[in-house]
Design brief:
about 70 residues, mainly beta, Tumour Suppressor Smad4
Length: about 70
């Protein structure tokens, strides 16, 4: 699987089976923006190049492609 998440600054983060996103250093992708919760979201890889984006109860929600 050759999937990645690309940040606004152009940094590519490879996606594995599960990729967590948030401000905490325990996440796969750490974002220091105050609008991001400590455990904000996760991306879960499914079969056939399908990925699910899941909000982990974040305060500000998630926005895909926007």
């Amino acid at each position: 699987m050759n999937a990645w998440l690309e940040t606004a600054s152009g940094v590519r983060v490879p996606l594995h089976a599960v990729c967590t996103i948030g401000r905490s250093a325990k996440n796969t992708l750490v974002l220091s923006d105050t609008a991001i919760s400590r455990r904000h979201a996760l991306i879960h890889a499914q079969a056939q190049q399908e990925h699910w984006l899941v909000d982990l109860g974040s305060s500000n929600g998630i926005h895909l492609n926007g």
